[in-house]
Write a structure and sequence with these properties.
alpha/beta, Ribosomal Protein S5, domain 2, 11 helices, 20 strands, elongated, binds adenosine-5'-triphosphate, binds magnesium ion
Length: 401
């Protein structure tokens, strides 16, 4: 028999462990929840082991906690030690082991008093009872199940590292993502030194929250002011460049959007996008053709979000449209101007969420002009900023004439 209870009753708030690394605490919704399982996914070599060793060392050092375990199935003890030295965390009382035998791990942790357990990676773990090779769906699922069950029972924070497949899913199928409480993706472009930690699922906090880090030789360093970082290499007075005032999670983020429109040598002109949705670019181009009379059929269009960031907000539509027209007409936009607004199929510019927050960030970084949707309310205005309200894309033609 089960005993049913009321929704309303005495309940304990979640116990959260602050890591002291602000970006991590932000992404997890205010700290790590005891008894929860967190999956960290990311491309090979992006810095997952580095990040988790830093988290483990930070938590262990904070309270001189003897219950922080780092178990590597991929690297030998010496490799992890060398990394720890490079990150200057070798004095932290982390308990380190290199093994893939899940039975041993479970038996050992069962007897210990763990606060935090890191499994790097779940694909290397092996349970004898399951008749398949490590990394296979049934092994991954069975190992994760055992570990998560133990985390709930003993109330420790469990981190699982998961490799991302070519299709972008962690650990092959998505089963693992359903089993855990929180899924974090660690992203970044090769050749760029900053990394974004993004919450794509969180049972204990908001999703789409991001943490920004810079990969240095001494490890991952938090970035206090990401907008400044993403705009650092921007050159003023070039055509095809706009600054989009975006929001990632709860935080405003300014990024440069670059477009290059060039005469096409192909029978089917090229459309290439880095960091944004290519369907969305196709839509913006179609709207500009249908509503403003531009013709892109003889042009290749390249779009790039500078710095290797991936953005998914429709609020970037207007900034993309302006970058494209600016490049096509070879007319630069003022370098102290930010843009945001969503474009509808009939060419209307729609309001977006949190305009005031976007503008505040822009103003903080010295921008003085903003192109905003027409429905933008006066009460949201920021002092020291000039506004151009646009209701429809056909108004853009005036801008470039
Ligand atoms: N000596 C070093 N100096 C600077 N950066 C380094 C150094 N060694 C490694 N790195 C950086 O750390 C990255 C590898 O980090 P890490 O091993 O944490 O990644 P990972 O995501 O765990 O990789 P894997 O998928 O192989 O487990 C490298 O790509 C490099 O950018
Ligand atoms: Mg690793």
């Amino acid at each position: 028999m089960i005993e049913f209870v009321d929704l309303n009753g005495g309940s304990e708030p979640f116990e959260r462990i602050k890591t002291g690394i602000k970006e991590i605490d932000r992404v997890t919704g205010g700290g790590l929840v005891a008894g929860s399982a967190i999956l960290v996914g990311g491309d090979p070599g992006i810095g997952k082991s580095t990040l988790l060793l830093q988290i483990c060392a930070a938590v262990a050092k904070q309270n001189q906690d003897e219950g922080c375990f780092y178990i590597s199935g991929e690297e030998a003890i010496d490799q992890v030690r060398i990394r720890a030295k490079r990150l200057s965390v070798e004095k932290s009382p982390v308990k380190l082991a290199s093994t893939t035998e899940l039975k041993d791990i479970i038996a050992t942790i069962e007897k210990a008093k763990p606060t935090l357990v890191i499994i790097d990676s779940i694909q290397t773990m092996y349970l004898e009872d399951v008749e398949s090779t490590p990394g296979s769906v049934s092994q991954v699922r069975a190992c994760a199940y055992e570990l998560i069950k133990l985390a709930k029972k003993k109330g420790f924070v469990l981190f699982l590292v998961g490799h991302v497949t070519k299709q972008g899913a962690i650990a092959g199928p998505r089963v693992l993502e359903h089993m855990v409480d929180t899924v974090l993706y660690f992203e970044g472009e090769r050749g760029h030194h900053f990394r974004i930690l993004r919450a794509v699922k969180n049972r204990y906090g908001a999703t789409d929250e991001i943490g920004v880090f810079e990969m240095q030789d001494k490890g991952l360093v938090q970035v206090e002011n990401p907008s400044a970082l993403f705009l650092a290499e921007r050159q003023g007075n070039v055509s095809g460049s706009t600054v989009f005032a975006g929001i990632e999670g709860s935080r405003p983020l300014l990024v440069e959007i670059q477009a290059l429109v060039s005469q096409s040598g192909y029978s089917a002109p090229k459309r290439a996008v880095v960091g944004w949705d290519s369907n969305r670019l196709a839509m913006v181009l179609a709207v500009l053709e249908a509503r403003c009379g531009f013709n892109f059929s003889a042009y290749d269009v390249y779009l790039n979000i500078a710095g290797g960031l991936k953005i998914s907000e429709p609020a970037a539509d207007l900034a993309v449209a302006m970058a494209v027209i600016s490049s096509l007409s070879n007319k630069p936009l003022p370098s102290d101007m930010v843009v945001f607004g969503e474009i509808g199929l009939s060419g209307e510019i729609r309001a977006v969420t949190q305009p005031a927050l976007r503008l505040k960030e822009a103003s903080k970084l010295g921008f003085t002009n903003a192109i905003v949707p027409a429905s933008f309310g006066k009460e949201k205005k920021t002092e020291g900023m000039s506004y151009y309200e646009i209701g429809n894309v056909h108004r853009l033609i005036n801008w470039f004439n």
